[in-house]
Amino acid sequence: MYRLLVTGGAGFIGSNFVHHVIAHTDMHVTVVDKLTYAGNRESLAGLPDERVAFVRGDIVDAAVIDELVQHSDAVVHYAAESHNDNSLNDPRPFLDTNIIGTYTLLEAARRHGRRYHHISTDEVYGDLELDDPQRFTETTPYNPSSPYSSTKAGSDLLVRAWVRSFDLQATISNCSNNYGPYQHIEKFIPRQITNVLRGIRPKLYGRGENVRDWIHAEDHSSAVLAILQRGTIGETYLIGADGEKNNKEVVEIILEKMGQPRDAYDHVTDRAGHDLRYAIDSTKLRTQLGWSPSYGDFDRGLAATIDWYRNNEEWWSPSKDSTEAFYASKGQ
Ligand code: NAD
Ligand code: TDX
């Protein structure tokens, strides 16, 4: 019996990965999650009790983490403070969870000789010009912009150091922007969908020209599983699905699919230090591990995501008013 410890498994992408692992392998999973404002146990509903255990715990808590890692074969580390806007408001929790939390997991994995996979983001590479023909690759220099992305970059560098200095059996993946069901409504796409559902106009930061490289969360999960099972120890893999779109285009598609005029949105205060463009070259993952995305059609994936938010109001509505109050206080 192969036992996986998944940190942050009650979050958006971590919970998708747990469902994916249960559906596609015979592994057993223990989720450790602090259940911050971003965690939701309902995102793990319907999983078999005999294969999935849930522990409410903080990855910064060395005693809890040591015990859980000792009783696992591998760790997949998703837990993080994940939202750029929050990191601009109060960076401290990002340092605690993303840096010290990762350090705590690395030390436990080292002590017990466990396989470790580290989930990271393309934001560690900074941003690209709109007309730059290059995309991010595994050798692009680190150049993070925000408190969030700098703590993710710091955590990646810790993993690399633990591999080199202590022979930790680790891999790293850096993925582009995810979308799909169960994403917290502070994030761009679900914020705009739930705004329209509530009769609020979508809010576009600045001119809306910033480009993100969208991938469905399910494709992120299949890539992580491939790396866990077939990746080379010590290597980094970039995960992306050639999904570049600017924010204005995304808002227009959402409005159109929801039966609104395509220009029924507001421009609001831009994000400080707002990265202009992310774009991933995932050739290494595709050629070396034979991975490819299944949700290539962004419009179809987005339509299904809109339906999910329409049909699951009880999942997101408890956090809608406080999320919008936070943005309103920032003029966003
Ligand atoms: P999320 O905010 O939806 O979920 C984070 C989860 O971690 C929550 O369940 C939260 O309760 C938990 N958590 C936070 N602090 C914790 C702590 N100290 N101890 C234990 N649990 C804690 O985030 P997400 O969007 O699902 O992102 C998951 C991971 O994927 C992060 O590492 C993020 O950097 C990375 N990532 C995200 C994206 C994206 O587009 N969302 C893209 C690339 C990489
Ligand atoms: O209301 C909004 N209006 C808007 O124009 C919000 C919330 C965002 N935006 C813009 C900012 C970005 O250009 O939309 C884009 C996407 O914003 P976010 O959803 O906040 O994502 P981003 O900052 O790109 O980071 C995401 O992808 C990389 C995740 O939140 C990170 O966890 C991941 O590492």
Question: What does the model show?
Answer:
There is one protein chain. The chain is an alpha/beta fold and 332 residues long. The protein has a domain at 3-179 and 215-239: Rossmann fold. 42% of the residues lie in helices and 16% in strands. It has twelve helices and 13 strands. It has helices at 12-24, 62-70, 84-89, 92-112, 147-166, 188-198, 217-230, 247-257, 283-289, 298-311, 313-316, 320-329, and strands spanning 3-7, 28-33, 52-56, 74-77, 115-121, 170-175, 178-179, 203-205, 211-213, 215-216, 236-239, 244-246, 266-268. A seven-stranded parallel β-sheet has the order 3-2-1-4-5-6-11, with helices on both faces. It has a two-stranded parallel ribbon with strand order 7-10. Strands 8-13 form a two-stranded parallel ribbon. Helix 5 links the parallel strand 5 and strand 6 (170-175). The N and C termini lie far apart (49 Å). The model has no long low-confidence stretch (mean pLDDT 98). The structure holds nicotinamide-adenine-dinucleotide and thymidine-5'-diphospho-beta-D-xylose. The site of thymidine-5'-diphospho-beta-D-xylose has 16 residues, from helix 6 and strand 8.
